[in-house]
Design brief:
alpha+beta; about 35% strand; about 325 residues
Length: about 325
């Protein structure tokens, strides 16, 4: 392991937001330079590349500070690079974001806007928040594997919409409007799945679900406030289960999903909190999971909370006061 490097490493996903990140990177780079932020930069070249870049940067090049330029998927890869190395405690590492991309759900919880200059100012100010990280073990054809996540994970309709959206991205199509087209299309074709949910070793749910979301933060699915009571440093996952609901009723209440009030307004919704979660499908292995745009196959899914495991740079004004 090399001596600690005091510079930021900026990891840019040029394909984020259907290529907007790559197009705008020269502008963003100049803003960071103008603010006197010392950094090196590197562009990813293929999916999962950021994981390799960040892991190597920590172990071989001594970097301890990272800026992710992209969407939630880019954040996810940077987090997995940080948490799959074992030479530096993750609490010694700082991560910042320059958000763009299709979903941008993590930034909504903290009130980031999509403005390059404002986000450069936030990075320069360096307000740190000790952020929880989710760890999920999944079983790829019986082979246990691990993935970490900053924001949220989901199964049922969540995962099917994720697959549909990723397919559109590969065709060069994206944006909020096309995401909503994916949601509408999947609502018409999706069949509810039977899951068992255990929270802190207690069986709390055993039924068919339309959607099941697990989060450190409040938003998932491109601005839907799926976990409106989540606090990203309290050591607890927030879980929201939506049971089978008719399409007309779902459509009539869509605005309530975006403001979080659906958890009180829809009798088909149940919420839970816990540090350890297991999701099992019936029949076995019949569902997948999405974590910030990445599809994981297949159940059971075992979640573990890593409390206040990394330092995230956040705006000075945010709603979470503890653990800063």
């Amino acid at each position: 392991m090399n001596e600690e490097n005091s510079k930021w490493l900026v990891v840019v996903n040029p394909m984020a937001s259907i290529g907007k990140a790559g197009k705008d990177w020269p502008q963003i780079k100049q803003i960071l330079i103008n603010e006197g932020i010392e950094f090196d930069d590197i562009l990813t070249e293929y999916p999962q590349h950021a994981i390799e870049i960040v892991r190597k940067a920590i172990v071989e090049n001594g970097y301890r500070k990272f800026i992710a330029v992209g969407g939630d998927g880019t954040n996810n890869e940077v987090i997995n690079g940080i948490f799959t190395q074992d030479v530096v405690p993750t609490t010694d590492i700082t991560m910042a974001v320059m958000p763009m991309g299709t979903g941008n759900d993590w930034r909504r919880t903290f009130g980031f806007c999509i403005d390059y200059q404002e986000n450069a100012n936030i990075i320069k100010a360096g307000r740190l928040f000790k952020h929880d990280i989710g760890k999920v073990t999944y079983y790829n054809h019986g082979d246990p594997r691990v993935r970490y996540f900053l924001n949220a994970a989901g199964t049922g309709l969540d995962e099917v919409v994720c697959q549909s959206t990723n397919a559109m991205k590969q065709q060069g199509k994206g944006g909020a409007a096309r995401y909503m087209m994916s949601v509408a299309k999947c609502l018409f074709t999706f069949d509810c799945v039977h899951v068992q949910l255990e929270v802190d070793d207690q069986m709390v749910f055993d039924d068919e679900v339309l959607s099941l979301s697990v989060g450190n933060c409040r938003y998932n699915g491109g601005g839907m406030m799926m976990m409106p009571n989540a606090i990203p440093n309290d050591g607890l996952f927030d879980i929201t289960v939506i049971r089978k609901v008719g399409l007309p009723k779902f459509a009539a209440n869509i605005s309530k999903i975006y403001d979080g009030s659906f958890i009180k307004k829809l009798k088909e919704v149940s919420t839970f909190q816990g540090r350890k979660i297991r999701i099992t499908s019936i029949p076995a292995h019949s569902i997948n999971l999405e974590t910030e745009g990445e599809t994981l196959t297949n159940s059971p899914f075992d979640f573990e909370m890593l409390q206040q495991a990394i330092n995230m740079v956040v705006p000075e004004k945010h709603i979470f006061k503890n653990g800063c």
